[in-house]
C-alpha cells in the first residue's frame, strides 16, 4: 500500500500556483489535498497533514473547495442512508471547523 509523501506538497502546490489561474488553481489544489485530512474517524488518512502543513498548504479558497469535495466524497458513498449521511456531514464540518488556519474566517 502506498502512502503519500507530504514533503512533496509544497513543490506540487507551488507548481499548481504557477501553472493554473483561478478557479482551476483552487480546484486542482483541493484535489491534490483530498486525502490529506482525516475528516471521518471511520476512515483515517494514512499520512494526515500536520497543523503547520495545513496552514502552509490551505488558503481560504482551497479550504472552502476542500470542504465541499470532502463532503461530496462521503456523501456519494452514503447518499441513500440519510442518518449516516447527516452524521458524516456533521463530523466533517466539525473537523474542518477545528483545523488550524493561516487566514481569517
Chain-wise SSE layout:
Blueprint: H1 9-19, H2 24-33, H3 51-57, H4 60-77, H5 82-98
Briefly say what this structure is:
This protein has 105 residues and is mainly alpha-helical.
Descriptors for this entry?
mainly alpha, 5 helices, globular, 105 residues
In words, what does this structure look like?
The structure is a single chain. With 105 residues, the protein is mainly α. It has five helices and no strands. Helix 1 packs antiparallel against helix 2, helix 2 crosses helix 4 (60-77) and helix 4 (60-77) runs antiparallel to helix 5 (82-98). It is globular and about 40 Å long. The N and C termini lie far apart (37 Å). The model has no long low-confidence stretch (mean pLDDT 92).
Number of helices: 5
Approximate helicity band: 55-70%
The average pLDDT value, as a whole number, equals 92
Q: Structural class, from secondary structure content? A: mainly alpha
> What is the assembly state of the chains in this entry?
single chain
Radius of gyration: 14 Å
Could you tell me the number of beta strands?
0
